[in-house]
Amino acid sequence: MRILFIIGQVALGGIETYSLRMCRELHRRGHKLDIWFVKPGGDPALLREFERVAEVRFLSRWLPVPFLPFAPAVPADCDLVFTTGRLSLIFGALALRSPHCPPLVAGVFSQWEYSGVADDYKSRLSHQILDQIGLGNVVFCTEGCRVFHAPTLGPDIASSIVSPLLIQLPDHAPERRPARPEGTPLRIVSIGSFTPFKTYNFTLPSTIADLRASGIPVEWTIYGDGVEAPRIQQAIAQAGVGDCIHLAGKLDYARFAEVVGRADLYIGAGTTLIEASALGVPSLVALDDNPEPTTPGFFADRTGTFTSDWADDDHPIPFKDAIAAFADLSEEARQSLADRSMARAQSYSIDGAEREIQRMIANAKPSCARLGILDRVQYSLGVVREVARVAMGKGAYRVR
Asked: Would you give the distance in Å from CA 3 to the centre of its chain?
């Protein structure tokens, strides 16, 4: 098979690391991979990893996004075009050329990606493309993400599929951790981009302060960067916990296992919950866009394909209570939770990458989605407006 992945940018996030893991496994199995990044620049280390397993191309070398709505043709022997967001879906459609039109698939990794009102150029054009390719060509990363989109996309959403966020499981079972000496801080780690919907970054500092006031020593190390960094710094300062919460900057993805493996507890969202659990690190779920410092519990106890998206049967409890209860566990109980965490992660093995790609191809239909002249003009005008928004400090158009 030959698969084309179209990705927004070379950034250390869940979409990019998922795509890299898929490409590595498919490359290992002898398949040919192409990666197109819509935006220029990005993380050099991550780019090198992509270049080891795929032919890499940038659709824009200098501008933040391509100004002209044109794309090179999809390779003639391509079996699937997998896109990872609104902008990449637009360029996937622009790359299709009759008569060779392999299935164009819209991968959905955010519960807000296509669920909102189409009031900017990326949303309007991407919804237009979805109408053309059909919802059988839509792939959700979790069941919760699909449920969230149902009111907007309608009953035909049942024809879409859910393909789980596959990870590379450790080659060997992690060694049993030694008992934590009494009185030493509980080591908590989080990894993720600083975006508005990852609200635990803003609400947890006060929880850490409350835990410390109740006599539970805690150290929380946060890896990541993004537009919300100042807000996180402000929350830490207001809670007076700058001595026990550390903003450690971006993490080289190759060091994920090393860094997380030393933690007593992981708190986070999305794929990182699965990866941390696979290392035997109990992982508390931080729900997306949750205004309260609460959690539905450990990923080990999640059902189906739900990660940090809301499930109907969620009954969140305060993070303070969950962390305090964890700190009070015996070593035997803590090891049992670690074992359950590793067992829960087994169903997400990257060994299923080829199977999942074949499911996507079988479920999707070939479609030469078209964007006409007026659509292309709308695109370029939208880019100009977006650049102006950024220049005025209003930020780019975002789904959330």
From this structure: 20
